[in-house]
Amino acid sequence: MIITIICAVLTLGTLFYVFYIPGALQSGPEKTRVAYLRERKEAVYENLRDLNFEYKAGKFPEVDYLSMKGSLEDEAAAILAEIARLENAPPVPGRASRLPKRARS
Predict the structure, then answer these.
(1) How far apart are CA 37 and CA 39, in angstroms?
(2) 45 lies in a domain?
(3) CB atoms within 10 A of CB 75
(4) What is the dihedral of CA 59, 62, 65, 70, to 10 degrees?
(5) What radius of gyration, in Å, describes the C-alpha atoms of the chain?
(6) Would residue 14 count as lying in a domain?
(7) Quick one: 41 exposed, middle or buried, by C-beta within 10 A (0-12, 13-18, 19+)?
(8) What does DSSP assign to residue 91?
(9) How many domains does the chain have?
(10) Which residue segment(s) compose the domain that 47 sits in?
(11) Residue 4 lies in a domain
(12) For 19-45, what is the mean pLDDT?
């Protein structure tokens, strides 16, 4: 009988801890499209550095290295072009500067 009560209290405590939603949730600062693209650019540059290092270490054949390098360079060029376009374009309030909903998460 005591064990059943202890298990019930422990179960209720655990469920409360897991599913409790605090009254006020705070979200982080809203990220602009340009900020997202800058983060993406840094990630692509880091991938290029890693790819170069791994190629020099002998982990990739030259054909694969050139293919992946070309793909990453194309992505970086597209990102840089979009950043330049967004920075030179006049801002449209509430529209072009914000991330699409699918990219926010």
Answers:
(1) 5
(2) yes
(3) 16
(4) 170
(5) 24
(6) no
(7) middle
(8) P
(9) 1
(10) 31-104
(11) no
(12) 88
